[in-house]
Amino acid sequence: MAEDPTENAPNVLAQLRRLISSDAVREDGQLPTERALAEALGVGRRALRSALEVLEEEGLIWRRQGKGTFIGQPPDPTGVLAADFAGNVDAAAIMEARLQLEPSLAWLAAHRATADDVARMYRLIDHIGLSPEADTAELWDGALHRLIARVAGNPLLLTAFQLLDEVRIREDWQMMRASVRSPQSLAESDKEHRAIVEAIASGQAKAARKAMKDHLSRLAQNMTTRLAEAAE
């Protein structure tokens, strides 16, 4: 299958999440080969491979050399239902909700993160910086915020987060994020992400909450400015 340069990597990730939460997976939890998956989902191998890497970093799948790829733990099935809600909100509402929810998730993560959780967070930050393509960078960025939500350890808050997370695969959201992304904003995000994880790693819950709020506030301001410019 030829690679589609416009393919939305986060959308491929969402398709995989739905697949591994469905009854289509074998009883032993083994996924089809990459080639078979790409053909079944109608996606390119490169985007598929990136999405599988994210799932592996999150601990949702694991690979055994010579045997294949297996589901490591089931994703929260409410993520599928969230897709029905996602189309009814705009960028301002999304950021408003994120500002209310994610600082609290960071606060909880600071109380509950293990050394392995923190190591995964830092690896995801490194992946964001090493991803030259916009949608791939967004994919890894989403994986970091999703991991923090999981580490927070509250299933009800995780469900609320997934309502927001589903929005990240929408084309209009991807276009909006791309319009405000620049080398400077990427550098700022990297610094902010590291501040969040450093606070989580050291168990400083208040600092983690503030660092997450500062990060999302800057993103919200950038989007507000971009929307105002587009309306002129």
Key features of this structure:
232 residues, 11 helices, Arc Repressor Mutant, subunit A, disordered N terminus, globular, 71% helix, mainly alpha, Four Helix Bundle (Hemerythrin (Met), subunit A)
What do these coordinates show?
71% of the residues lie in helices and 3% in strands. The chain folds into 2 domains: 63 residues, Arc Repressor Mutant, subunit A (Orthogonal Bundle); 154 residues, Four Helix Bundle (Hemerythrin (Met), subunit A) (Up-down Bundle), CATH 1.20.120.530. The N terminus is likely disordered. Strands 1-2 form a two-stranded antiparallel ribbon. A hairpin with a 3-residue loop joins strand 1 and strand 2. With 232 residues, the chain is mainly α.
Q: What is the share of helical residues?
A: over 70%
What structural category characterises the helix and strand content? Answer: mainly alpha
Quaternary state of this entry equals: single chain
Average per-residue pLDDT, rounded, comes to 83
Main β-sheet description:
2 strands, antiparallel
If classified by CATH, what would the architecture of the largest domain be? Up-down Bundle
Number of strands: 2
Summed up:
The protein has 232 residues and is mainly α. Helix content is 71%, strand content 3%.
List the helices and strands and how they pair.
Elements: H1 9-20, H2 34-41, H3 45-57, E1 61-64, E2 68-71, H4 78-86, H5 91-112, H6 115-129, H7 134-152, H8 155-165, H9 171-179, H10 183-201, H11 205-231
Helix pairs in contact: 1-3, 3-7, 4-8, 5-7, 5-8, 5-10, 5-11, 6-7, 6-10, 7-8, 10-11
